[in-house]
Amino acid sequence: MRTSRLPLKLATATALSLLAGTAVFAESHSMAKKGGEITVAIETDVRGFDTVKGGVLGQTGEIVMRAIQEPLLGFDNEKNEATPWLATEWTVSEDQTVYTFKLREGVKFHDGSDFDAEDVAAHYTRILDPEMKSASRSFIASIDKVVATDPMTVEFHLKHPWLALLPYLATTSMSGPIPAKESVDADTQNRSPVGTGPFRFVEWASGDRIVVEKNPDYWRADEINLDRITFRILPDTQTRFASLKSGEVDVIWTDRGASIVDAEKDKSIVTLATDGAGAATNMLNGKREPLSNATLRKALAHAWNQDGANKITWKGTRPFVTHPLGTAKDCGEANYRHFDIEKAKEYVAEYLKETGKTEVPPIVMIHTTTERGRELGSIYQQTAKAAGITINLEPVDQSTLVARTFKGDFDITGWRIADGADMGPQLYAYAKIGSSYNLTGFNNPELDALADKMRVATDMEDRLNMQCEMVSMMNDDGSIEYVGGGRYYAFTTLRVKGVPPPYRGVVDVTRAWVDEPS
């Protein structure tokens, strides 16, 4: 058996470093002041906190989730390894298919109930149940079953060795944070979440705000400084930025190039930035006409101008990418289809010859009603027109976009491949035939077989090489177009301290404090 364990003092230091992203933050935490409250502006409302009913969180939802619920493990992003959190230690069977976790004793949910192995097992069993149709299932489908062997011990049985298990048990997206089983059973978790986190839910006024307050019974209560956090829903980028400058809000997340450039020049604003994996994308629906035609998808891939989007929308604040693996692996060009209008026209001509049509049928792109969504849609509309393709734009709210994308009710949709410590599960889910996350309709047996081989690889370098191979095949297909790479920004007022750079694009305000000027 393999054992992984950290002494309590080391685990504490690692946890602080984990939450902060840097050791410097861990050291400065000792200077934190207790009390006060802050307002965090987020772009969109949360769809819900129930792992089934809520669907996906997105970056803004994950910001709120981190305050309320916690995952089984932490993650040290500097060392790129999982660390103890709600689980204190774990062992691994020799064949790497059974992981046994010992849970932290004395942890309470916000409703006063005890955190135990039944909560963990129930959470993952529910996600894995095909009848539940959880959007998270495809990402963790390598897990066969999760069993509570005693109140403080839980076993994860895998279908095969899976190197991504520990990073996925540390994620704060929808599958990672553990809810109270009683709250899920009572069907109240989606709108009134109950977790073990440092803040407990108070109220949610849809489209306006979500309020949380300090959890006095938190198992790491000495680390929590704020009494209250209000998450204000401000979809308009300019309004969010203006609210930060005026002091109406204290923290914002944004990817708007103009706001980022202005904020970096403003001495009254603190800029926090990180580079990571993942990418903003356009997804082309190959499951229905006319984009079920591979030639037309390739035409559109060459009609997309990532450089133009970077200059116009991102103002040079995001990297140009040919793959979503970030710094974990350099996949090179990976068959990326660069912006080339003449090449796009050639594929359009080939498409018309193949189909006998005289023109390309109009294509509808759904995008968010945000300024970013409108701008990126307009860029694509103009470049596609130059290639002889008409794109009609349909702005929808974030919740509608997500729902329609999962239902396959789109031709082109704006999307995001989320950052992650291991991009393998996402690539697998996007490429695997029959996966609920195969949003573009990949139906390539060779890619499918490669995805299976990558998933069971026990050597990380082999796994990464196969991920690059997968990306090359996916790029060649033209179904996923990169809009910009994984560089993430958050901004705070000077009075807010202790907010780390936005690892994975998510702002963590759980250990923040307020230092009012004297």
UniProtKB/TrEMBL annotation:
<feature type="signal peptide">
    <location>
        <begin position="1"/>
        <end position="26"/>
    </location>
</feature>
<feature type="domain" description="Solute-binding protein family 5">
    <location>
        <begin position="82"/>
        <end position="428"/>
    </location>
</feature>
<dbReference type="GO" id="GO:0015833">
    <property type="term" value="P:peptide transport"/>
</dbReference>
<dbReference type="InterPro" id="IPR030678">
    <property type="entry name" value="Peptide/Ni-bd"/>
</dbReference>
<dbReference type="Pfam" id="PF00496">
    <property type="entry name" value="SBP_bac_5"/>
</dbReference>
<keyword id="KW-0813">Transport</keyword>
<dbReference type="InterPro" id="IPR039424">
    <property type="entry name" value="SBP_5"/>
</dbReference>
<protein>
    <submittedName>
        <fullName>ABC transporter substrate-binding protein</fullName>
    </submittedName>
</protein>
<dbReference type="InterPro" id="IPR000914">
    <property type="entry name" value="SBP_5_dom"/>
</dbReference>
<dbReference type="GO" id="GO:0030288">
    <property type="term" value="C:outer membrane-bounded periplasmic space"/>
</dbReference>
<dbReference type="GO" id="GO:0043190">
    <property type="term" value="C:ATP-binding cassette (ABC) transporter complex"/>
</dbReference>
<dbReference type="GO" id="GO:1904680">
    <property type="term" value="F:peptide transmembrane transporter activity"/>
</dbReference>
<keyword id="KW-0732">Signal</keyword>
<dbReference type="InterPro" id="IPR023765">
    <property type="entry name" value="SBP_5_CS"/>
</dbReference>
<comment type="similarity">
    <text>Belongs to the bacterial solute-binding protein 5 family.</text>
</comment>
